[in-house]
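User: structure tokens for this one?
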Amino acid sequence: MSRLTDEILIDRVELYDTYEKGKQYYESGKVREVKTTPNHNYYVASVVGGSVYKSIVEFNSYDNIVATSCTCGAYKKYHGDCKHIVALLILIMDYEETSLTRYKKSEGDIKNILHYYSQESSDIKTPVNLEINFKLTAEGAFLDFRIGVDKLYVVRGAEKFISDLQENKEIEFGKKFKFSPEIHCFNSNDKKLIDFITLLYENYEINFYNSYGNKYNSTFKGNAIYLGPESLKRFFELMKDRKFNANIYHSYVEDIIVTDEDMELNLKIEESKEDLLLRVVDGSQLISLTPNGEYFFYKDKIYQLSQEKINNIMPIYNEIIKKETTAIRIEKDLKETFISEVLPAIRKHSKLIIDKNVEESIYSEPLHSIMYFDKQDELILGKVIFNYGNISINPFSSQKTNDLNTEKILLRDIETERTIMMLLEQGDFKVEDGGFYLEEEEQIYDFITDIIPELQKHCEVYYSESFKKVGLISSKSFKGGLKLDDKSDILEFNFDIEGVDDSEFENILGSLREKKKYYKLKNGSFLSLDNKAFDHIVDMLNYLDIEGKDFHDGNVKIPKFRTLYLDKFIRDRGIDYIKKNVNFKRLVQDINDPDDIEYELPKGLTADLRDYQKFGFKWLKTLSNYGFGGVLADEMGLGKTIQMISFLLSEKEEKGSEASIVIVPTSLVYNWEEEVKRFSPSLKTLVIVGSKDERNKLISTIKDYDLIITSYPLIRRDIGEYRDIFFRYCILDEAQYIKNQESLSAKSVKNIKAKNYFALTGTPMENSLSELWSIFDFLMPGYLLTSKKFIKKYEWPIVKKEDNEKLKELSNQIKPFILRRSKKEVLKELPDKIEQKIVVDMLKDQKKLYKAYLQAIKGEIDDEINAKGYSRSHIKILAGLTRLRQICCHPGIFVEGYNGGSGKLDSLEEIVAEAVASGHRILIFSQFTTMLEKIKKLLEYNKIKTLYLDGGTPIMERSNLVMDFNKGIGDVFLISLKAGGTGLNLPSADMVIHFDPWWNPAVEDQATDRAHRIGQEKTVQVIKLVAKGTIEEKIFKLQEKKKEMIDKVITDGETLISKLSEEEIISLFDME
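Assistant:
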């Protein structure tokens, strides 16, 4: 497998387009004349583009790319590899993927394959000895070698030697020794050197051609190999701590080594008449081997010098080498400067002997530096004095104070002086009258914060009284607090900076937002703003949209719903300078852990809540107690309605009667009414439906009820009637109905007045983050800022820029106020099957048609029974009931010319859309195939993929459909109840919808068991759609009433109707 991958190559280019172009270059054969070293760590190629470019790739021993280069302009201009290098890298990758082919002369040649494996398993090879000879002359640096096992032989013709090694050829060195790649090898150290020489050979092969196409030999000269400056440095690096032979300007040394130990010259300084002489004591020759002075030959060793030594002592070494002598003369007029400024560096980096007479002429005292600062008007004035005993030097004046009355030469600490002067230079001082001054405000701040602390490491620093007023206040003097007042219900943030008047807070915040490093206070001091403490405050205030003008006496009021955000903000950043009071901490604890609070379930509740539902109940109670709203966003089927009903009943039992309002989709109005009656009969419920006059009359009685139920369409029409009504709670079910903030539904519900607001939805966000904003704008206006600010701060960065930090911040913001559990999370508490009846009201035209058919059918049946008797009228009765059931589903399945809709079909459309969005896979059963066809058409219009099975589906196709669905094909499987109610294994579905009720509940149970069976890993949700006030409700009630009996007496082929009494049958045709 290649050490390269497409991902590695893509990461190495600045633009993906570069990778694509490189790939095209490779595929079109533009990579030519490729050469590589034997170990394949170095590749060179000519790549044809606008010109022919030389591209190079080098790997290290760990198979990582360590260097690339190309002669094209793009490589020098842009970051990352160019297309020519990419083309070469792709060639290398492909070559290495099929590396075994290099051992075969022809495809399919078994002999070459066997030869390869026989090589791999051959005996251990014999290492050869390699003698390295280094020679330095006026012409340059050269290498030559001797090689052998028992005896060493001169390598004659270095170029051919390397070429033969590359081609794995045998090399003869006389009658007694022949180097054979199959039996000889180099040891690891020698192998590195051979690889290095091979690299030189490759460069020589590729680079050096003259205009006539002939090689111009500048690297290989007979037996020797020429080393240029960079090659020489590489050679010394390879030879470090390894012995070899050297001939350096006719000084021959055997077993010389390269070392990085400190090279100390033995120097002596002495008088020579009126001059000074600096000479090498032992007379050893000092020779620079590289232009930059990194390597020196001294005392039969090659030394690698540190950069510090190169910087400080090289002028001396160069002078010694240049004079070709062991002594340097310092003339009389340069003595003082040399001793004062040069001698300290020589003493630090060499063994220096100072002659007694010279020693007596030197005045040597430690440096004591003093710095003075003053302030005049807006200027900062400074003065520096270098004191050596009784001698004082002002570096900005030519005068020198000398109280010694002597001619001795001062030995100065030039290094420390230079450090101090460099620090002053960084401050951009201007020089005047033996001192220096600063006048720019920013330069003064930088000098006080950055440079004075460094100067204090080298000087005594003194300030005048006026300068001391130019103080520096740091973030350590900052303190803040968050206080939640449980009486006034107000959250306050305050901060105080010691030494700063509250009146300056507005300007300070302005400077912070402008990203300034400091703020200059009115008293002339500087407040440092360049620290994380203030950065955190700005981030926090920016989010809260707080300006400096909002502070009064260092305090600002904040909406209480910001408490949890502020707590998370402080904890995540480890901020310890903002303190929180007890009420603040208690609120955070209660919201984060409502399970710890003892809330009793309402006594009038007639349902047993599961543990997760009890947690939801407590969560709603806790949010309410603190005046917050929230989104109960449990997955469909986990009982959001019963949790909310429990909460509303609890509030009534604790606080007395006060009306709350729940707004729901039209299809769920009566479902809510039924759920409330079933689980909390003591909640007085008012359903507001009917004509405008009827609704107005109902609205006028709201104060007499505990819970008002109405729909989104009706609230839009009636919102004006609610303007003077104040509710305890306003609740939205299926809150995604207000996802469009500009919709009439959203605008209407946001005008309802209530103490608190809650939302129920399984899909709080479907398409965009703005949908989430709209729901929170209903719950707690302003919590997610204005719509415009929300888009700018969150939606645009998250959606367009994939900003994970903003995504995390938004998640932290909404997390305390959204409670969402999936079935998978609470699976241990859930039964294997959850059944839910959803009562749906018929549409106006549908209801009118139902009433007309009911009246006609009832008359026909009465006539039939009177004429033939009840026992002989079953067919007529069944036909009439079937017609009514079809109308409940959709009149269009048998009534020609019906152009109206269906309440159940509308409800089904909503349920399926939400379920599919949540990842559910659904089985839909109906007795009527014509209904299934209508459902199929609707779902396909909504881009929901469906499978279909009825009695006309061939057996083989049935099997294939089942297999396809279980493989994940399709979101919804439409199945005729009779055709697919038995015999199908569909555990990949986790939701079953019975569009119309069947007489025998056992048949429905069998259909449900297509999904709820062995192999099912998820909880199965079963939904039964029932048309309100119709025969379907009556069938459902009869099913529940007689289910125990039916289980005992109904057998296959029987229907519930055959077991009903005449009285029960007749009651089916009664209108409620």
